[in-house]
Amino acid sequence: MNWRLIFTKKLNVGQRLVRLHHANAIIFTVLAITGFLLFSSSFRLVFPAIRVWVRESHVWIGFISLLPILFYMPKMQKHLKTLRKRKNHRINLYYVLTVLCTLILSGVVLTYHRHVPPLISSSALVIHDLATWLGVPYLIYHSVTRSKWFKRLVKPVKKEEKPLVVEDHNPIYRRRTFLQLITGLIIMLVFSPSILKWLRTYFPELEPKSRVADANQFRNPQPAGDSAPPIGGGRRGEFRYYTVTEMPTQSEENWQFSIDGLVNNTQSYDWDQFLQLKRDVQVSNFYCVTGWSVYDVTWEGIPLKKLLEDANVTKQARFVKFYSADGVYTDTLTIEQAMMDDVMVAVLIDGELISKKNGGPVRLIVPEMYAYKSVKWLNRIELIEEEHVGYWEKRGYSTDAWVSKS
Ligand SMILES: Nc1nc2c(c(=O)[nH]1)N[C@H]1C(S)=C(S)[C@@H](COP(=O)(O)O)O[C@H]1N2
Ligand SMILES: [Mo]
Predict the structure, then answer these.
(1) Atom 24 of ligand 1 has which residue's CA nearest to it?
(2) Which residue, judged by its Cα, is nearest atom 10 of ligand 1?
(3) pLDDT in tens, 101-128
(4) pTM here?
């Protein structure tokens, strides 16, 4: 296609609509692909280094996708007139426009999610996902069944074309309906695993039983009175389970937790010793920088402050580095941040052991910062002098992880 033609005056409305339509189709294909990469957990595993770059591109192209729609707006009246007698085409048009506008609006909120309350960004993410899974398969179906090669497949082009007769028993129509059905089925098949994965974040019951049963076989300690329901519990929202490696398998026998580096008393605990440490309960919110949040989560664990006091940190230490049993993920806090009262080395959620996919048996919780600070499968804390740059920070996430309180 020739992009310049979109802007020239010589075209009539019909031709312009076709050009806008093509521009839109290309832009949304790129958005669908980049969006899918951002959603995909395999992408998180295999290409973490370009994740932030893909997100930036998705955002920019998202803004560009506004242009064809803005150009279209003045022509909409005329377009609708041409569709006066074609109800299906009109419904199609309204549907497509609704999907596009919903995606763009929720996308803008997500782009600036650090400036809006978390409740709004969580809703925007749900809406963005919903519009994606309800809209994108349809948009693809629409593009395929309206494309030239599909039409050629239905009705091979011949020299002397006769006008189509609109009758149900016309073989061309039957063939078209059949091919449309097949196309629809193929698209649904391709999309269903992702849609199912998305639905599972909201309906954990959909998870196959074998995966719900937690592989982590640690002994459940006695929860504090206000940790388990009915006093504890009551969190709102769902976790999306993230990992950048295979989830590490840990067992009670070989589990080790250590605090070392610039401390006077290097500490090392096995599971029994770790459960002897005095635990607190806190209810806090959990914010992921991609826009989702879980509210009022009841965690029970050892305040980090307490562990650091036991280890007796030396004057030289300026940063606290956290290691994961996955062997790859790390992050850091300054000593001052690490000493905040609500930073917790958590062992229980709602009075039960934290599940493996949720980062158990032991994970860090830093409620006032985005959750990329909350290292899962935490097994080592090292006190250091020079700043360490964490896993995601190295790959483009902001070193300022504070959640704005506005
Ligand atoms: N070891 C490890 N810790 C991690 C991550 C990870 O991939 N690996 N992801 C971080 C991010 S970005 C978030 S949002 C939370 C997600 O926690 P959840 O998987 O329990 O929902 O864990 C954080 N801690
Ligand atoms: Mo995150």
Answers:
(1) 375
(2) 372
(3) 999 999 999 999 888 888 898 999 999 9
(4) 0.87
